[in-house]
Design brief:
There is one protein chain. The chain has a single domain, classed as Up-down Bundle (Four Helix Bundle (Hemerythrin (Met), subunit A)). It contains 6 helices and no strands. Helix 2 packs antiparallel against helix 3. The radius of gyration is 17 Å and the shape is globular.
Length: 186
Amino acid sequence: MYIHNSVNKYIRDLGAKKATPGGGSAAALCSSLGASLVCMVINFSLGKPGYEKYRPILKKALVKYMSLSKQLLRLVDEDVAAYKSKNLTRSLAVPAKVCSLCFEGILGATELIDKTNPMLISDLGIALELFAAGFKSGYYNVEINIRFLHDTSKKRKLEKELENKWKIIKNTKLITEARIGKIIRR
């Protein structure tokens, strides 16, 4: 659908008077860009003098973020398909998955701050912001659809899970922004 087309087509369709793509797929794309930025930061740090001791950690993180980027990119099209299917379970599952992957991405990326090239700290910070935006956007999509879910137990569980993760993200962002700011202003 979109992941094999140009970004230009996606942007045009996103801005058109069409039901899809919409916010859910935009959340997935935004998040995939965040994961790809983390990959860039890692790639520029691997092999750089002074970072040899982090090589095993960086190699493992690179594999993780390449996988996250691919998974999130697939969700761009899965969100479009979920909307078209009119299947509530599917329409909840895709943005919930975006949230889950963004949460994973944020927590892992914060651990790379002192292990990567400080000249790329702004890129790492931008990646964290993209993950946070992707999470919150996915959260909005869950909230708009969850009201149609009749299983109150499942509804409460998902709401509580996302609410708790969002609190962790907000706290993590505060701490991380301070750490990144310190490095930028050295």
